[in-house]
Amino acid sequence: GIFDGHGRDGHRVAAVARERMLQSVLRHLPTDTKDAKHTEVMECLAASFVSVQKELASWEEDDLDVSFSGVAVCMLVFNVKRKVLYTSWAGNVRCVVAEIQEIEEVMENVVIPDNVP
User: Fold this and answer.
1) What is the pLDDT of residues 54-94, one digit of tens each?
2) Contact (CB, 8 A) for 25 and 88
3) Largest CA distance in the chain
4) How far are the Cα atoms of 25, 47, 90, 93, 103 from residue 12, in angstroms, in the given order?
């Protein structure tokens, strides 16, 4: 995943989000990926974003400034057995997936539209 912090403590917020997000995804991701339904993986990713957001919004462990600092996140999960790529994001981020057709030719497909209010 990509975790891009912003604000005075953006780098710290990004580090906490990265750690918590990866823990949450690994804890809730279906273990039998061959039989996992697409909705299960998508729900896991969405629930992980919500969980991390709630934790950061109520942060009281130290002086981490979550009022004026934050993080934009783009997470990718690739199901090797099914050959399916899942994308999820929060904040002003973009994801470009490219398939190499020939050594010098690249076909680009934007898979995530702008995510702005």
Assistant:
1) 999 998 888 888 889 999 999 998 888 888 888 899 988 87
2) no
3) 52
4) 20, 22, 17, 19, 39
Structure tokens at 36: 């996992």
- Beta-strand ranges (E) seen in 1-117 are 2-6, 70-79, 84-90, 96-102, 105-110
For residue 2, list its beta bridge partners.
74
| CA–CA dist 4, 39 (Å, integer) | 27
Closest Cα to residue 72, out of 42, 47, 93? 93
CA atoms of 110 and 88, how far apart (whole Å):
13
Cβ-based neighbours of 62, under 8 Å, separated by 6 or more: none
Cβ neighbours around 12 below 10 Å, total: 18
Length of the chain: 117
3-state secondary structure of 3: strand
Other Cβ atoms within 10 Å of 81 Cβ, number: 10
